[in-house]
Write a structure and sequence with these properties.
- The chain has 113 residues and is mainly β.
- The strands form 2 sheets. It has a 5-stranded mixed β-sheet with strand order 1-8-7-3-4, with no helix packed on it. The chain has a 3-stranded antiparallel β-sheet with strand order 2-6-5.
- A hairpin with a 2-residue loop joins strand 7 and strand 8.
- It is globular.
Length: 113
């Protein structure tokens, strides 16, 4: 996934089981976490159901969240790692992971006058 530093990115996804069916049950917790590497203990930014930075729509079964400009404004250009983790009934499961590449910007926040 690529993103120009300081831009807004709206994302959505559905939870799908092994049979390709949509999981309609909302979990206890759900996180989207971005770090410098998989080995870092501290995250750079995180979205979660608990903090209402991830929403769930029962009508279409999509989870939605937004990477805001302030999430990436101070990041160095380059590649970062992310995952999406679900916690439900004592079970922890990573349902997606990948790389987030922060690309160069031309118009910086201070130039937006």
């Amino acid at each position: 996934m690529n993103l120009i530093r300081g831009d807004t990115l709206n994302l959505k996804f559905k939870r799908i089981d092994r049979n390709g069916e949509v999981i309609k049950e909302k979990p206890e917790k759900l996180f989207f976490t971005v770090k410098n590497s998989y080995y870092d203990k501290n995250y750079l930014f995180q979205k979660s159901l608990e903090k209402n930075t991830i929403s769930y729509d029962e009508n279409d079964n999509y989870y939605r969240f937004t990477i805001e400009p302030e999430d990436t404004n101070t990041l160095v250009f380059g590649k970062y790692v992310y995952d999406i983790e679900v916690v439900n009934l004592g079970t922890v499961k990573t349902i997606a992971k990948g790389t987030l590449e922060i690309e160069e910007e031309v118009t910086f926040a201070e130039n937006e006058v």
